[in-house]
Design brief:
333 residues; mainly alpha; Rossmann fold; Tyrosyl-Transfer RNA Synthetase; 2 domains; two-stranded parallel sheet; 56% helix; 8% strand; globular; binds tryptophan
Length: 333
């Protein structure tokens, strides 16, 4: 049995880019009987940017409800909050002593921030808190604590898993074989999803489609998709945002039929309306479930409570091993 672990930061409403890039592939993987899955809400990772009580609280429920509404089965997956596993923070402290500072200097989120500061003629560490700087160590603790074999992540997180692997091997070399060396599982063929304006779908571009947007909003957003000026009855190139989004929701046959229609020439308006109908068929039941869970947070609490208990029990065993390995005196035997 191999263990899969992944985390999602509660930093805002999940959009279709998150769904197709991370949530859906992780849920598919969890259906595999050979995998034991630990999926969690990385609430303390969010603290690097979300420093607002109401927001952190709401975003946390949003992510939990999102996983469940997208089909995560809490019988199969241990779903928990990072903050319910305090051993994470103990391990993070220990691991920070095995992590070279230079490795953190090269971590991409920090590096990008430094580069932006240099461009703007600011001090290189302007706006950088230690949470951001040490982010990869905390993530390493999440992963190693649960003995994860595989970590399903998007390409942007690949480097972080490599860091976790490096730190695990530094520890093993110094203190004896303690940690499993984790490997990233980057879903193939899921490149960046296009957003409303044809650029990568990203919150920072303001071009996203939230997974659970209500029907009216969804229709509005689809209508906002930027198209070219091809006349209604002219054939359309398939290199357009509507078709790219359509493909994600469609069966092979639906995709072929839609491609044919576009190439024959239907208006962008009609194309958008077909896209909306198809999307809404898939998303409506998920949206309903999401809204139900948001209104019944006690269901979510119970699932997180059970998950937290399991995760903590496992973490406790790991921490015991680690303390022994490094020579911490144990008086509470
Ligand atoms: N850093 C991840 C992100 O930004 C979230 C995360 C935190 C994570 N801890 C993790 C992912 C451990 C995988 C494993 O999306």
């Amino acid at each position: 049995m191999k263990r899969l672990l992944t985390g999602v930061k509660p930093t805002g409403i999940a959009h279709l880019g998150n769904y197709f890039g991370a949530i859906k592939p992780a849920i598919e993987l969890s259906k595999n009987a050979d995998y034991e899955c630990y999926y969690f809400i990385a609430d303390y990772h969010a603290l690097t940017t979300v420093q607002d009580k109401e927001k952190l609280y709401d975003y946390t429920y949003q992510i939990a409800c999102t996983w469940l509404a997208c089909g995560l089965d809490p019988q199969k997956v241990v779903l928990y909050k990072q903050s319910d596993v305090p051993q994470t923070f103990e391990l993070s402290t220990i691991l920070s002593n095995l992590t070279p500072k230079g490795l953190m200097n090269r971590a991409h989120a920090y590096k990008a921030k430094v580069e932006a500061n240099e461009q703007a003629n600011e001090d290189k560490d302007y706006g950088v808190n230690m949470g951001l700087y040490c982010y990869p160590i905390l993530m390493t603790a999440d992963i190693l604590l649960m003995d994860a074999n595989y970590v399903p992540v998007g390409v942007d997180q690949k480097q972080h898993v490599e860091i976790a692997r490096d730190v695990a091997s530094y520890f093993n070399k110094r203190f004896g074989n303690t940690f499993i060396l984790p490997e990233e599982l980057v879903p193939e063929g899921v490149g960046a999803l296009v957003g409303l304006d044809g650029r990568k779908m990203s919150k920072s571009y303001g071009n996203t489609i939230p997974i659970f947007a209500d029907e009216k909003t969804l229709r509005k957003l689809v209508n906002k998709i930027v198209t070219d000026s091809t006349a209604p009855d002219e054939p359309k190139s398939l290199d357009n945002t509507i078709f790219k989004l359509y493909k994600l929701f469609a069966t092979k046959q639906q995709t072929e039929e839609f491609a044919e229609k576009l190439q024959k020439g239907i208006s962008w308006g009609e194309a958008k309306s077909e896209l909306f109908d198809l999307m809404n068929t898939t998303l409506a039941p998920m949206r309903e479930k999401y809204n139900y869970l948001q209104e019944h947070r006690e269901i979510v609490d119970e699932i997180l409570k059970q998950g937290g208990k399991k995760a903590r029990e496992y973490a406790q065993k790991t921490i015991k091993k680690v303390r022994e390995a490094i020579g911490v005196v144990e008086v509470n035997k």
